[in-house]
Amino acid sequence: MPKILQNPRETILKEAYTLLKDQGYSNFSMRELANRSGIALGTVYNYFENKMALVGEIFNNKWIEILDELKEVKEKEISFEEKIKLIYLGIEKFLIYHKEVFFELTKSEKKTESKKSHGCKRYDVLDPLYIIVDEIIDLHKENKDITIDIETRKLTSFLISNMITITMKNKEFSIDDLIYIVTNKL
User: Fold this and answer.
1) Would you give per-residue pLDDT tens digits along the chain (186 residues)?
2) How many CB atoms lie within 10 A of CB 136?
3) DSSP code at position 125
4) Cα(44)–Cα(40) distance, integer angstroms
5) Cα–Cα distances in Å, from 144 out to 113, 147, 184?
6) Residue 137, Cβ neighbours under 10 Å: how many?
7) What's the gap between Cα 28 and its chain centre?
8) Are 119 and 96 spatial neighbours (Cβ–Cβ below 8 Å)?
9) pTM of the shown model
């Protein structure tokens, strides 16, 4: 008689998250996941087509949690600088455990985009973050808290790309340096 599993999908996701934190994306093994979760490898593949599909779901779930936290930053009655620091801390919190997956997913998105010639917009994992930061910048431009004369999306792109770079443990440049540059229009 076959073993009846209680919440196998959740069990797989929970164990996969732990395995991903412990071993990273490149050392993540579906076979090891099956062994750790006590679920047959075939059953794991019934729920997730491949490693990228499984890890992508974990990544998206955690990213959505971070984005939900960051959406609240816009409404806080704090300075522009403090909001940017909170955005940075959210990105840092996420990338501590998901840096490798983040780069794998964005790399695969770039490959997919380069194969498309019909010009359809692809979904980018950073799009929701860009929107959040755009809204924060627009709010503070409106309130005259920041007066830098650059398009909002360009400033957002500058901030986010540099936040990601800083998160990679850049020792020469800090979030405070980035905020100084933006607020002092250097």
Assistant:
1) 456 678 899 999 999 999 988 888 889 999 999 999 999 999 999 999 999 899 989 988 889 999 999 999 999 999 999 999 999 999 998 888 778 777 776 666 555 544 443 343 444 778 999 999 999 999 999 999 888 889 999 999 999 999 998 987 767 888 999 998 888 865
2) 24
3) T
4) 6
5) 38, 6, 14
6) 24
7) 19
8) no
9) 0.77
